[in-house]
Design goal:
The complex is a heterodimer of chains A (573) and B (180). Chain A is built from six helices and 30 strands. Chain A is mainly β and 573 residues long. The radius of gyration of chain A is 23 Å and the shape is globular. In chain B, the strands form three sheets. Chain B has a five-stranded mixed β-sheet, with no helix packed on it. Chain B has a five-stranded mixed β-sheet with strand order 4-12-11-6-9. Chain B has a two-stranded antiparallel ribbon with strand order 7-8. Classes of the chains: A mainly beta (573), B alpha+beta (180).
Chain lengths: 573, 180
């Protein structure tokens, strides 16, 4: 068994080294003699070379990103995961609906996979679309342990395209995940390179006057925050399908073809604003679920989200896929071209956004550090309605060029603006193509204040870190409304395992069905979940270092089909 | 495929004339406007073939239709999807501008994803223009409804049948007419 794995890993490594990359590695992983439903994945320490520098990381079948796993809706999959590391590992299937023991979260789903052990996952595929997988142990995911999942639909898809590419983004860092966590705990602004300087101070004085500038700085100082805190981790190298700007991943097309791009953000911390100069994108799916198609020029993809788009390049020319980090500290770049070797102009990064007082979401005079007093904050009445009617005319339709997005605080420094002046996708534009559940009112509401103390790099929910908090108990069969109130100045992509998050965009039965919901600073966002998955599930902010710092909870579902219920021993099945 | 072919400017001029008979200018009428580049409304007595076209979310069946020059075809169109769809005969350029009009219809509430608000369609948008879809080369159907288009073809070059409900064309809800 071990020898086979080594040979396989070597073969995959060779293929990867020859530039064939992860897709062929997946073909190397599944030997022809095996059942097509069975996949073998080895977890190994590997060297990763992104064209800018080399470091050690973790690979699946010898490469990072790991192989694209291709399944069919309705298939029963068997995935054998062999741990060749000297420490525990795990694989979580992000966005997949499956029995809780197969969800891959150590201490919640099972005990993890010990060094040298092979764990076999078995579950039915109950959905289609674009998803991803990653380690849920330590900081292995930021160190390279991630890959994509593409699930073919059993029925005809509501769109047509001629070819199909996974475009997976990440944020590789010179420092290992463990080292980053230690540094952040020691000095929370360790990686925040874009801090305000004396130069900024003087510029602001000449622009806004002395009094206004000093008031502004004292206000931020009082709150012990730095206005530039859009990203608390900089110095990363954006990768697209494992390749940096210089390596330039390229997808080939024939002019006139419709190309489906499956964007997956597998970063530890970085949000990306994606655009393809010269090509509009028609968004057809979000988090694996089809949405009514909406044509945009640019979209923001939060950590752990996926968006599928269709583009139709008509000219015999190359196009640049440009992914600027939300804090504009770095960019990822890839190319769509009719032939290998063709490139297009790469845009320049725009000015970095600065947070404003609006992102604090509350009146400055009420602020007392970052304690979680029960202040409602600014309940942006533009969103969070449970309006039963689905009328697109009352939906907050953004006219072209508008720069308001109801999912950002009014006046927020983070409100997305399309670089070409066109349309930027908002959550408010998303409508489920086909609702998964009957629309009914929630049976109860639970409030989650997203809290934190940037000075000590503590991130929490309702003021409590994971280890100090009780699990959240839900009842099988209820419909729970999760109300997120973001008391911090960072965006948090909240991910509930095992059950869908129906995001409230005011569209009633057509509210989009997601697995990861980003909550911007100073905003309140609600989603509803039909509690139809027995067992226990992880629920956390998907920013890797926030989850590790305490922004995490265990959810226990009480009741449900006997066979699916929690056993006293975890890890069965 | 290139719009700026030998006919050049004439084609563009004719396309503009065709736009004048688009839904926004109902009074310009759905009369017998002869537009050699895309054909003209056909007489039911001259029909040589009947073709059934089914509309789904979001695609046509069939996606390719072969026609002979000069043929008059009756299209029986059925919307078997759960959303409003259109069947519209025209060139790619015509479809692009019609898409803009349909976006406006949605913004004004005349058109919802699964419903047509007929009253609002008749609403005067100024200059005596309405949003009524009563052109001979297209039908806009709610889920479950059926209708007909009778069309006489001259050439098929660059001719497509499309749904211009926002987002549908870009997701692939378009088909080709080909010379048979």
């Amino acid at each position: 068994m071990k020898i086979k794995t080594t040979v396989r890993a070597l073969r995959a490594l060779t293929l990867a080294a020859l530039g064939f990359g992860p897709v062929l590695a997946s073909e190397a992983a599944t030997e022809p003699s095996q059942n097509a439903n069975e996949v073998n994945i080895s977890v190994d320490d590997i060297g990763i070379d992104n064209g800018v520098y080399r470091k050690s990381g973790i690979g699946y079948n010898g490469a990072s990103p790991g192989p694209v796993l291709r399944f069919k809706e309705g298939q029963n999959v068997v995935i054998n995961v062999t741990n060749n590391l000297d420490r525990d590992t795990s694989i979580h299937w992000h966005g997949l609906i499956l029995p809780y023991q197969q969800d891959g979260v150590p201490t919640i789903s099972y005990d993890g996979i010990k060094p040298g052990e092979t764990f076999t996952y078995r579950f039915p595929i109950q959905q289609s679309g674009t998803y991803w997988y990653h380690s849920h142990s330590g900081f292995q995911e930021p160190d390279g342990a991630y890959g994509a999942i593409v699930i073919e639909s059993k029925s005809r898809e509501p769109y047509r395209y001629d070819r199909d590419y996974v475009v997976q983004l990440s944020d590789m860092h010179t420092d290992s995940g463990e080292r980053i966590m230690r540094n952040l705990k020691m000095m929370p602004d360790y990686y925040n390179r874009q801090q305000q300087t004396v130069g900024n101070f003087l510029t602001d004085i000449s622009a806004n006057g002395m009094a206004a500038t000093i008031t502004d700085r004292m206000a931020w100082g009082d709150m012990r925050m730095m206005a530039a805190d859009v990203e608390d981790l900089q110095g990363f190298t954006p990768l697209i399908n494992g390749k940096s700007d210089v390596q330039n991943w390229t997808g080939i097309f024939k002019p006139g073809e419709r190309v489906r791009l499956r964007f997956v953000n597998s970063s530890a911390m970085a949000y990306y604003d994606i655009r393809i100069p010269g090509l509009a994108m028609t968004v057809i799916a979000a988090d694996g679920n089809n949405v009514r198609p909406v044509k945009v020029d640019e979209l923001r993809i939060a950590v752990a989200e996926t968006y599928d788009v269709i583009v139709r390049p008509k000219d015999d020319t190359a196009y640049t896929i440009f992914a600027a980090s939300m804090g504009r500290s770095a960019y990822g770049r890839a190319t769509l071209a009719p032939r290998e070797g063709m490139t297009a102009v790469v845009p320049k990064l725009e000015k970095r956004p600065l947070l404003t007082m609006a992102d604090m979401g509350m009146d400055h005079s009420d602020m007392a550090g970052m304690d979680n007093t029960a202040m409602p904050g600014m309940d942006h009445s533009k969103m969070g309605h449970t309006s039963a009617s689905d009328s697109s005319k009352t939906a907050h339709k953004m006219h072209k060029g508008a720069t308001t997005d109801p999912f950002y605080a009014g006046g927020s420094g983070l409100t997305p603006v399309a670089a070409n002046g066109g349309k930027f996708l908002s959550y408010a534009d998303l409508r489920a193509q086909k609702p998964l559940y009957e629309h009914r009112p929630a049976t109860r509401e639970i409030e989650f204040q997203l809290t934190g103390n940037m000075e000590r790099y503590i991130w929490s929910i309702n003021g409590k870190k994971y280890e100090d908090a009780e699990p959240i108990r839900l009842k099988y069969g209820e419909r729970v409304r999760f109300k997120f109130i973001n008391k911090t100045m960072m965006s948090h992509p909240m991910h509930l395992h095992g059950m869908w998050s129906i995001l409230d965009v005011g569209a009633g039965k057509s509210n989009p069905i997601k697995h990861t919901i980003s909550v911007a600073p100073g905003t309140t966002v609600s989603m509803e979940t039909e509690v139809d998955a027995a067992g226990q599930w992880a629920f956390h902010c998907h920013l890797a270092y926030h989850a590790a710092a305490g922004m995490f909870r265990k959810i226990i579902v009480e009741g449900g089909p006997r066979s699916a219920q929690l056993n006293s021993q975890a890890g069965e099945g | 495929m290139n719009m700026l072919s030998i006919r050049g400017v004439a084609v563009i001029a004719i396309a503009t004339l065709t736009l004048a008979s688009s839904p926004l200018l109902a009074d310009a009428g759905h009369g017998k406007k002869s537009t050699p580049s895309i054909g003209e409304p056909g007489k039911s007595t001259a029909v040589t073939r009947t073709i059934e076209v089914e509309l789904f979310d979001n695609y046509f069946t069939p996606e390719h239709i072969a026609v002979k020059k000069g043929e008059t075809i009756r299209f029986v169109i059925k919307n078997s999807g759960e959303f409003v769809h259109e069947f519209n005969i025209g060139t790619a350029a015509m479809h692009v501008s019609h898409q803009k009009e349909m976006e406006m219809m949605m913004e004004h509430g005349a058109l919802e994803a699964d419903k047509i608000n007929h009253d609002m369609m008749k609403m005067d948008m100024g200059n005596g223009r309405t949003m009524a879809h009563n052109d001979p080369n297209s039908v806009l159907l709610e889920p479950g409804k059926s209708s007909e288009v009778i069309w006489k073809f001259t050439t098929t070059s660059g001719l497509e049948f499309a749904c211009n409900v926002p987002g549908h064309y870009d997701s692939g809800m378009v088909g080709e007419f080909q010379d048979s």
